[in-house]
Amino acid sequence: MAHIVLLGDSIFDNGRYTGDGPDVISQVRRLLPAGWQASLLAVDGATTENVPSQLPCIPSDASHLVLSVGGNDALMISGILHMHAESTSQVLATLANASSRFEENYRRGVDACRRLGLPLTLCTIYNGCFPDANLQRLVSTALTVFNDAILRIGIEFSLSMIEFAFRLFIAFRLCKPNRAFFFGRCQNRQHDCEAGLGRTTRERGCPSVHLLRDAFFA
User: Fold this and answer.
1) Global confidence as pTM
2) pLDDT at 90 over 70
């Protein structure tokens, strides 16, 4: 039987954000077929540099790895969004340098995962959902250089990938919930049929969980 292991950051290790609602790992376990297992090794606040340290705890019967990490790396350099620049080339150079550092660390984490010889799925970084439309535009634009690195590494090694960046953003926008919904539950019953989901958000659960489900059972 399959045993899925979730690695990375608070996209998966989200219990502190869900209140009395179910966290991601609880929902994943509930959605899995009989006999399948899921383990949570992701750690809230983790960065790409922390991925190798999560691997020694992988269960001996693990069959699939799913990695979602990078958002905290981006947060650590978010100050570049407010920096003063003398030219467009200076802005692009700053983003290029940040992307290179991120790719180096992300690649190191992926390499460590791949050495285990298990199927590995990568997740892009979601774009967030900021009330300030201008800030949202800047964040979404800046994150493309990080997500580009993730996609290129995934393509290079023919890895499965889950596109969190856009799809989670759309689900979040349509439902307009609080943080607890995005990371595990919804506190309203607004319909999200526009997203083709066909059920109320409370019945459907966390978008990230269902993208995981679709990746394995679509």
Assistant:
1) 0.79
2) yes
